[in-house]
Amino acid sequence: MTSVIGGGLESYMNRRAREQAKNRTAEAEEQAKQILEQAKADAERTRETMRQRTEQRIEARRQSALSQARRKAREILMHRREQVMEQVWQQARERLRQLDDAERLAAIRRLLQDAAEQLGGGALRIQVNEQDAKLLGDDTLAEMVQALKEYGVEKLSLAEAPAHIIGGVIVWRERDNELVDNSFDQRLALSRTALHDPVYRLLTGEAEE
Predict the structure, then answer these.
(1) Where are the domains positioned within the chain?
(2) Inter-residue contact 182 to 164 (CB < 8 Å)
């Protein structure tokens, strides 16, 4: 009787042990499967994140390179336009230098009249460059005074020292030394300032508003 009970108990214990071992093995396998799947998912997320970051870095570098290229192109273009503008003004200066005596004297007359209007007449002293001083003899100065009487000019005298200018005339009113600089140099500088933007727009092809 004892041996039967003992044998049955042993069989029962063995069966329970096998069942528990099987269950634990299944649980371990399931847990291992979940861990493996989680690891795969984590690896995929990591790979995707790295891919996105790599693409972002590549795109950032591409955008940076494009930005630098555009900036460099603008700098080159602006420098070239400034060079062209400088050539325009240099050509204008050279054209003024090449005026013949008749053209130079006519320009002096016009610029002197403008200065006389601004100064309101009176006794005026004028200064020109060395080349133009030879054109302003006493007879020419007397003729100019007659032509400028309507602007209140009483007398014209030529300064002894020539001016270091391309051409044109610098005029003082003797009673107070008020000055009008109507030299080619000054008029060209004023024109350059006033015309810089319009000329720049012509070079860039931009329409004026």
Answers:
(1) 99-194
(2) no
Torsion sign (Cα): 161, 97, 101, 126: negative
Write down the CATH superfamily of domain 99-194.
Answer: ATP synthase, E subunit, C-terminal (3.30.2320.30)
CA 44 – CA 61 distance, rounded (Å): 25
Measure the CA angle with vertex 81, ends 70 and 92; round to 5°.
175
**What average pLDDT does the chain have?**
83
pTM comes to 0.60
> Which of 40-44, 121-125, 131-135, 169-173 is predicted least confidently?
40-44
DSSP 1-21: -HHHHHHHHHHHHHHHHHHHH
What is the rounded distance in angstroms from the CA atom of residue 68 to the CA atom of residue 75? 10
Kindly state the tokens that stand for 196: 């810089």
| 207 vs 81, more confident | 81
